[in-house]
Amino acid sequence: MRLIIVGPPGAGKGTQAESIIKKYQIPHISTGDILRENIKEETDLGLEAKKYMDQGDLVPDHLVVALVQDRLTRKDCENGFLLDGFPRTVAQAVSLDAQLKKMGIKLDRVVNMEVDEKLLVERAVGRRICKSCGATYHVKNNPPKKEGTCDVDGGQLIQRADDTEETVANRIKVYKEQTSPLIDYYRAQGLLLNIDGSQDIDQVFDQIVKGLA
Ligand code: AP5
Ligand code: ZN
Fold first, then answer.
1. Is 74 a catalytic residue?
2. What whole-number distance in Å separates Cα of residue 103 and Cα of residue 78?
């Protein structure tokens, strides 16, 4: 299965991605995660990307496109993949189409997570992530068993640098302006699967599985 999951910040893409990759046994390619990893390791890409990410702006297309191009040619993508957070502009989608064509493969579906703006802010601002394994929690909707501590490995839970109310508002604006045109782009290709992402985590996953069947 070759999938894309798209949606505004805080829509639940990463949360659903964790379940999708387990069920369909495909690798999770999250450009946000890869960029954050680069920031942590202080690579050239990370240092460049940080300037944009801290403001909630998009990292320039050519940097992200190169990163995904490289990732998709790895062996573990042979039986499929889930792209999360990419493409994010029509230019990125066009370059992805060109690469897939060259590779002789096609996308199966584009999962489009639809969530009301008020809920998005609440979800993003309340999100906590594990410093060591990256697991995602929410202070109200999905709290860890012990406050501030990861259930998986006991790691410390922290807030993402771009999850402040102000930066989230800019990320939503950027989504509307630069990413939402992708919805029409993929609808025109007959690939779009709209999902009501405002329901609880398990209900959203059920909708996705039914939609992909
Ligand atoms: P990225 O990491 O992709 O962030 P995002 O798109 O803003 O998405 P989020 O990770 O914030 O949200 P999510 O939808 O995954 O929600 P989650 O499941 O965590 O990108 C970050 C930055 O990197 C960008 O701003 C940009 O600068 C750069 N970047 C990345 N890709 C790029 C690209 N292709 N081009 C250019 N720049 C790029 O859920 C959120 C919270 O809600 C969690 O706490 C969760 O527990 C909770 N929750 C989830 N689902 C539910 C539910 N159903 N009910 C209740 N609570 C829920
Ligand atoms: Zn952890």
1. no
2. 10
Q: Is 13 a catalytic residue?
A: yes
Residue 86 Cβ < 6 Å to ligand 1: yes
CATH architecture of the domain with residue range 2-115+170-212: 3-Layer(aba) Sandwich (3.40)
Q: Is 2 close to ligand 1, i.e. is its CB under 6 Å away?
A: no
What ipTM does the predicted assembly reach?
0.96
Query: Is 185 exposed, middle or buried (CB count within 10 Å of its CB: 0-12, 13-18, 19+)?
Result: middle
Q: How many CA atoms lie within 13 A of 167 on its CB side?
A: 17
In the chain, domain spans: 2-115+170-212
pTM of the predicted protein model = 0.96
Ligand 1 close to Cβ of residue 171 (< 6 A): yes
Q: Mind listing the pLDDT tens digit of every residue in the chain (213 residues)?
A: 999 999 999 999 999 999 999 999 999 999 999 999 999 999 999 999 999 999 999 999 999 999 999 999 999 999 999 999 999 999 999 999 999 999 999 999 999 999 999 999 999 999 999 999 989 999 999 999 999 999 999 999 999 999 999 999 999 999 999 999 999 999 999 999 999 999 999 999 999 999 999
* Ligand 1 pocket test, candidate residues 16, 123, 128, 166, most atoms within 8 A of CB: 123
